[in-house]
Structure formats: structure tokens, C-alpha cells
Write a structure and sequence with these properties.
CATH topology of the largest domain: 2-enoyl-CoA Hydratase, Chain A, domain 1
Shape: globular
Strand order of the largest sheet: 1-2-3-5-7-10
Number of strands: 10
Protein name: Enoyl-CoA hydratase/isomerase family protein
InterPro entries: ClpP/crotonase-like_dom_sf (IPR029045), Enoyl-CoA_hydra/iso (IPR001753), Enoyl-CoA_hydra_C (IPR014748), Enoyl-CoA_Hydratase/Isomerase (IPR051683)
CATH superfamily of the largest domain: 2-enoyl-CoA Hydratase, Chain A, domain 1
Number of helices: 11
Family: Belongs to the enoyl-CoA hydratase/isomerase family.
CATH architecture of the largest domain: Alpha-Beta Complex
Strand content: 15-25%
Largest sheet: 6 strands, mixed
């Protein structure tokens, strides 16, 4: 598929989804939301891709809804409102039920709706000059879904502070690391994509089937109580019994070679 607002690349086993509206700090218009939805599914369905990295071009990772479109002729705002009313946030990996591991590589500014992608990624790394903030209340809007998603990753007080301070304070990459919002800070920032590719290649060495089941089990745990989460996790564990990868992994270990996973 040909995209206008994003770029899709493949580097070995790693698929890259790149926000490509740098002139407006990668703000999302309706076209970008639609293209993101298509791109997530394209990469998730591609058997040659085992891991997906999401990043941005220019000075920003993602800055949320394109306010120029929303404030324009009313059509953009209506469609945006319709998607929220129907909880049809199809532009994120979580809402598209992407089964492959997703790494968000945050470059520069990540603001507002850009936090959707941080909340919904499996792993988040950031350039040392990355900043995070939520301007919703500063432009008369309610912040909800992004912050609710972040509340499952970092302490609630930090989420509430970001939500209420709005555009008047930015969280640094180092502070995000301290809070557990990101797991790695890359310095210098210019090496972010190289670091993301390296991390993705490590993840890609593992069993695709086992990773998909693991991802389902761990995300489900965020929506369930401890006992129910463990029961669901056990179902995913047992579901791998008899799978090629379950026997191939121990055999490769004993034979001191790289495993040959089922595609």
C-alpha cells in the first residue's frame, strides 16, 4: 500500500512504522489515523516481520490530533468525535490487536494523543532529548484515554500531574525512565533508531508463537484480578503444548545452535 502521512519499512525481521508529517510535528489528521490502522495490520500480517518499531520523523514522535483540522470546516472534528464516541481508536497497535511485539522509539516531542502509542506499546525507549506532556486541559479539552492507559504503566500521581499541569510542564526522558514510562534512554539522540533496531533484533530471535501468547497473557493481566489473570496465563501456556517451537527451543539449547522457529 502507498502511504502519504507515514512510512513503512522493513529491515530484516524488523518492520518500521514511521510518522511522516514532520512539518506539523507529526500531528494526526484523519488520513494519518486511517493509514496507521492499515500499516499496523500490514506489518502484523507480514510473515517476514517479527517485531514492529514505531517512531517519528523530525523534531517530534507524535503530537496527537491535528488541531488545524479539528478547528477547520467541521468535517474533521465530526469524524474525530465519531471515532471517540464509538471507541474506534483504530490507529494504535492495541486497538488493532497487533500480536507482534511493538517497540515505541520516542524521538523529540511526545504530546497529547501521541501518548496513546506510548501507553499501548509493549516496550518504550526514548532519545535523551525526548519530552512528554499532555496539553489537553491547556486547550480546553478533557484528557482521558491516553492518561488512563499510562496509569497502568507508571504511578497514578505522576499521571495526574501530567494531566492537570497540561502544556506548562514537560517530563524529560530521564524522568520518564525513573518512573518506568520508558525502559531505556538513548544518548546521543541520533542513535535512537540504531538502538531500536538492535533491541528489535534481540526480540526477533525468540519464538514468534511464544511471544504472541506471552503478549496476550501479560496484557490480559492488566484487566483482570490476580487469580483470573493467572488462569488466563495458564491457558496461553498450555496452548503452546505440542507446538513446534516448544520442542525446538530446548533441542536447540542442548545442541548449542540457534533455534529454527516456525513462521
Amino acid at each position: 500500500m502507498t502511504y502519504e502521512t507515514i512510512k513503512v519499512e522493513r529491515h530484516g525481521r524488523v518492520g518500521w512504522l514511521i510518522n511522516a508529517r514532520p512539518g506539523v510535528l507529526n500531528a494526526m489528521n484523519n488520513a494519518m489515523r486511517d493509514e496507521l490502522a492499515e500499516a499496523w495490520l500490514e506489518l502484523d500480517r507480514d510473515p517476514s516481520v517479527r517485531v514492529i518499531v514505531h517512531t517519528g520523523e523530525g523534531r517530534a514522535f507524535q503530537t496527537g490530533a491535528d488541531l488545524a483540522e479539528i478547528a477547520g470546516d467541521g468535517v474533521g472534528m465530526q469524524r474525530y468525535q465519531d471515532s471517540l464516541m464509538n471507541f474506534d481508536l483504530h490507529f494504535t497497535s492495541w486497538h488493532q490487536n497487533v500480536s507482534k511485539p511493538v517497540i515505541a522509539a520516542v524521538n523529540g516531542i511526545c504530546a497529547g494523543g501521541g501518548l496513546h502509542f506510548v501507553a499501548d506499546a509493549d516496550i518504550v525507549i526514548a532519545a535523551s532529548d525526548a519530552t512528554f506532556f499532555d496539553p489537553h486541559v491547556s486547550v480546553g479539552q478533557v484528557t482521558a484515554i491516553e492518561m488512563i492507559g499510562l496509569a497502568k504503566k507508571i504511578p497514578f500521581e505522576a499521571v495526574m500531574r501530567m494531566a492537570l499541569v497540561g502544556s506548562h510542564e514537560r517530563m524529560s526522558a530521564q524522568r520518564a525512565l525513573e518512573l518506568g514510562l520508558v525502559s531505556q534512554v538513548v544518548d546521543p539522540p541520533e542513535q535512537l533508531r540504531e538502538a531500536a533496531q538492535e533491541l528489535a533484533e534481540k526480540v526477533a530471535r525468540n519464538s514468534p508463537a511464544a511471544m504472541a501468547a506471552t503478549k496476550k497473557a501479560l496484557w490480559a493481566a492488566l484487566e483482570l484480578g490476580l487469580t483470573d489473570a493467572c488462569k488466563v496465563g495458564t491457558q496461553h501456556l498450555v496452548g503452546m503444548w505440542g507446538h513446534h517451537d516448544q520442542s525446538e527451543g530446548p533441542l536447540a539449547f542442548v545442541e548449542k545452535r540457534e533455534p529454527r522457529w516456525a513462521e
